[in-house]
Write a structure and sequence with these properties.
Blueprint: H1 12-38, H2 41-48, H3 53-64, H4 66-81, H5 85-91, H6 101-110, H7 114-138
Helix pairs in contact: 1-4, 1-5, 2-3, 4-7, 6-7
Length: about 150
Amino acid sequence: MSSEPGAIHFTFQGLVIASVIYSTPFVVQPIQNAIEAIGKRPLEVAATLRARPWDTFWSVVMPLARPGFLTASVLGFAHTVGEFGVVMMIGGNIPGQTRVVSVQIFDRVEALEYAQAHWLAGGMVVFSFAVLITLYTLNPDARRKTP
C-alpha cells in the first residue's frame, strides 16, 4: 500500500478511476452517435410544447438514445475488463484488491504455466462473446431484419 495519505495508486479506487478515464472514448462515441441520430425534429416538437431543455433531455433525448447508452455501457465495461496496461500501472497486482484476469494471464505466462494461461484467455473469449450476445439481445436496434 501507499504511505502517502490520500494516494490512490495501487488501490481499487485508483484502478476504477484510471479505467473509467481510459475507457471514455469507447463510451462517448456510441452516445454521441445515438444523440445525433435523434435529429432535430423531436427536439423542435418538444420546444413547441414548451418543454424546458432539462425536460426535453430526460423525456425525449434519453429514451430515444437508450440503445446508444446501453451500447456505451457494455463497451466501456468490456474494455475495462480486458485492460492490462492501466491495471499494471495504476493498480499493480495486489491479490484480493487489484488482481484482474488480464494480469492473471500475464502472471501465468511469466511462470511458464501456458495451459492455465490458455484457459484464462479462453474464458475471456467466452466472456467477450457473452457480452456481445447480451448486447445484441438487449439492444433492439442491433436486431435489424434483412429483406
